[in-house]
């Protein structure tokens, strides 16, 4: 029983971690939580669906193009929602992104809603399960785990090694100081929103064969990503990753060993318990909030 | 200052109690048009339960209108969204009845929403033909104005249980969602199991929109069930079937009415043989069945962006039923004459494997279901059940 | 002449118009009016929490549900007449609101928002799974309220909602003109300064939570009968978002703002029905546009064009 | 000054933030209706002392007594209720309230309006609001700021906000008020007005005032006695003149090797 739960827990955990990374990336640099982040995932998946099913492109090309399109969507959400409200109170920004998420959900349903119960794209590799010392694993799960880890490593390097990464961190630590040293903070924000959306798009294309997408998958994933970021510690990238895997495992173990009705609610319980007893989460610093 | 406000409130309370405006000739019917209202879910996660069905209904109406309408009257089908929620269904129903002033209501998707709108419709004494809601309270006890062309919830699970037993199941498990749609099936399923003194070996819950069902699959496997009755939506069923196959557990699985698009399911699982022992019931024939090809083109013509699905067939059958009833009600169409026509009517529809027959004492006008399974990559109808 | 466009005369004329509405409106409009009163009560309560005390807590949707469930259970399971079941709904929500306040006191800003959204989702889960009490996903069916007046009970219920709505506006205004209101705003502006004036944070925050919970509970008690069905999905995340939008679009920290937000959004939601499948796009787009062009809400407009509009403790300027 | 019982007594007060010793064994006592200045270079622990006394931060050792009764360890709202009021370095006037309402908030602990009185606007709340408004107006008159009574708390200049904060502290007739650098950043005539106000408080209100200050002229002109602190310890105490000629004080401010006039000795 346990090995199965662990493998599927890690796979869903990887999904939550990747969505959480995009969320934390935007939070770290702008201090705002993007409540339309789930919808960026959803549209990323639908883009890939159209590219593969209608344009007939191979999977990898579709993955690349879908990530680009998601990046553009992230830039649009910065220009349309974030930048005009940069001065407004935190609460207004929350509502703006919530409004934007409904707009994207409506668009997703309008264009891809009539196509069927849910949409999926064929996995890269033959989907039949393979056995690793008699534990069956879907190849797609391995691909997802591998890709998720690759993304996280890439991000760690991006932030610590590259110039752009350092600039992004600088603006998140102290926007005013960054202005002073000549960083065009607005552009950095645009980049951050774009990259955050791109990560969500990539996660979508990787995960769609497993999770199947509907216009409403964004909302559920957003709450799971919240649980991941809070458990890991709001604002910490490693926290988002560790938190993501932890939430994935908690869900599987809770529904496996306690009661299957808990799978749906595990994420909320995690959020409530962590926030009341240890708001800083595992890696975060409580009070470093900006909202 | 506060006393002044209370006085004003009291004065207005007395002054405001006037009676309503005078009643008109038959509402919603003119010489050239019949105004029919569709109350149901057009947006939100369960929109297929409404929007897609009404695309089917309206395709039938458009065809009839194109052919000159019924007794010279064309049907106008106006839709109001209830987002599958009671707090939206009541205003939607009131708007149809009091603002649009429709002649009758032809629709009803989610059970809770329809149940919430029911008192409003009953009070207005207007005919209501239900397309998809399966809550038994809608037609039991019989209301002279309310009919349904959809299986009742208990009929489905009765059929599923019977099918599982016919297929030789000894230990039966249940996997269900926790929402109104599933609840109106799950509770009667427990009763019919008790009636046959069968106790479920496992009773697990799955969210309507899961990303993973490994835990549920494992619990079913450890329970040793050789048959699983699924009270699930297609996405949950697909994820469950994949994860059961993944852990090497292959029981008989009998799915409910929402899971009849087996080809799409097989495609998204993508693992050959994963659906071999899976059977699903549907009140309709399969969308690819040659006998419904005509309606596939008709729906394509009116709704090009829709992919033809079983939900469309719910609408087509109910649409044809409605057209037959309107024809039977004759030229001087009134709500009473339509109700009388509906109360004794039998209609065959290409979309349904069995007839729709209403009796004065039984407005549950449809009681048949077809069984589908994947045989050699093609969806085959493997059986039909007619309940009394 | 300007004296005419100040809160009291404007509010009285609105109340008179609302009272006369049923005379010339059809059942649908009466229902929408009833809904508007219920949401005014809700937004007043939420505004006390979000706008005046600055507590970013979204528990009102769940408490709205608890009020509705408590009233429904009191009537159907214990046969308590509606006249007592309604206040019971309010008290049940008040009790839960205060209990929820205790852990929430330690949280601020985004943490509080996310914890309260999780609590809202958890409440919906409990409504759907606590079958013996809440009737599970199929919920509880409520008979219409037998008011014993002539005419449809819904019209009478309309006046009951109107009366309670007027009362809650007056009560809110009274509270804001007392030390209790001032202690709310003091906490919002600076907790350390408030404590420096002997304002006990725990007691005041709990009062704010309790008060807004009572408003939400009473609103729930009024809401249940007009739906005749109390089910979990009426109090889910969408309810949280709609109420939140009402308070922000209406304008934080203003009674007029709460009323504008409730009436405005209910009107828009019904108007959006015409957009059919595009309702989500229209709803999301409308919120986005309103927030982009009216960051401090409709009350902000009031401040710009009617500077001498005097309200107790009205929030001025964009808060931080 | 007769040897009246101390209004505020601090015995061996220590405050430690982790390893950092912010206050080290500070002992001082302040008499009734005295204006006590507390000066010292930056980082001397002045504000830490103020925060410890008002309960904003928790002392790690020692005892604080108001009128002989221990208040160390109480919540700052409880200390405030016992008649200890303060102002802040960065003004904390409440926006969204008028200046009058700001000052009325100072009377929160003196009122007994309950949530029910407020909700149903009972006779008690109407009476208490009227009295509070009168007292607040009187406090604004005392500090000469009645013309701003109807303005929003956030619309005033820095100096005006400072004075109104003092009115807000005075309105509840406190035992002790603590002023956190009231004169810093004020123009010259604002400083003169402040000095007059402080003398007026001593003359007419008999309130003990403890003032942390950098503007030495105010300390020299107004304070009865001055306590000098440096790196968390009390290094001198006495009248303004005694203190400014004290060797340790000069060294603390200017470093060793200078005489009283700041010339290299």
Verbal overview:
- The complex is a heterotetramer of chains A (291), B (388), C (320) and D (265).
- With 291 residues, chain A is an all-alpha fold.
- Chain A has one domain (2-277): ABC transporter involved in vitamin B12 uptake, BtuC.
- Chain A has eleven helices and two strands, in the order ααααββααααααα.
- In chain A, strands 1-2 form a two-stranded antiparallel sheet.
- In chain A, 62% of the residues are buried.
- The model of chain A is unreliable at 287-291 (pLDDT under 50).
- In chain B, α11 (310-329) packs across α12.
- The termini of chain B are far apart.
- Chain B is α/β, with parallel strands linked by helices.
- Chain B has two domains: 33-151 and 289-367, Rossmann fold (3-Layer(aba) Sandwich), CATH 3.40.50.2300; 154-282, Rossmann fold (3-Layer(aba) Sandwich).
- Chain B has helices at 2-15, 51-66, 86-100, 111-124, 153-166, 180-195, 214-223, 234-246, 262-269, 293-302, 310-329, 335-343; strands at 33-40, 74-81, 104-106, 128-130, 146-148, 172-176, 202-205, 227-231, 252-255, 278-282, 345-347, 356-358, 368-375, 378-386.
- Chain C has a domain at 26-139 and 152-235.
- Chain C is built from 14 helices and two strands.
- The longest helix of chain C is centred in the C-terminal third of the chain and has 27 residues, at 201-227.
- Chain C is globular and about 50 Å long.
- The two termini of chain C are 35 Å apart.
- The model of chain C has no long low-confidence stretch (mean pLDDT 88).
- Chain D is built from ten helices and ten strands.
- In chain D, α3 packs across α5 and α5 (123-143) packs across α6.
- Classes of the chains: A mainly alpha (291), B alpha/beta (388), C mainly alpha (320), D alpha/beta (265).
- At the B-C interface, α1, β2, α3, α4 and α6 of B face α1, α2, α7 and α10 of C.
Reconstruct the topology from this structure.
The complex is a heterotetramer of chains A (291), B (388), C (320) and D (265).
Chain B: H1 2-15, E1 33-40, H2 51-66, E2 74-81, H3 86-100, E3 104-106, H4 111-124, E4 128-130, E5 146-148, H5 153-166, E6 172-176, H6 180-195, E7 202-205, H7 214-223, E8 227-231, H8 234-246, E9 252-255, H9 262-269, E10 278-282, H10 293-302, H11 310-329, H12 335-343, E11 345-347, E12 356-358, E13 368-375, E14 378-386
Parallel strand pairs in B: 1-2, 1-3, 3-4, 4-5, 6-7, 6-8, 8-9, 9-10
Antiparallel strand pairs in B: 10-13, 11-12, 13-14
Helix pairs in contact in B: 2-10, 2-11, 3-4, 5-6, 7-8, 8-9, 11-12
Chain C: H1 7-24, H2 27-52, H3 60-78, H4 82-104, H5 109-129, H6 131-134, E1 140-141, H7 153-176, H8 179-189, H9 191-196, H10 201-227, E2 229-230, H11 237-250, H12 255-271, H13 279-293, H14 297-305
Antiparallel strand pairs in C: 1-2
Chain D: E1 8-17, E2 20-30, E3 35-39, H1 46-53, E4 61-66, E5 69-70, H2 76-81, E6 84-86, H3 99-105, H4 115-119, H5 123-143, H6 158-170, E7 176-180, H7 188-205, E8 208-212, H8 216-222, E9 225-230, E10 233-238, H9 240-244, H10 247-254
Parallel strand pairs in D: 3-8, 3-9, 6-7, 7-8
Antiparallel strand pairs in D: 1-2, 1-4, 4-5, 9-10
Helix pairs in contact in D: 3-5, 3-6, 5-6
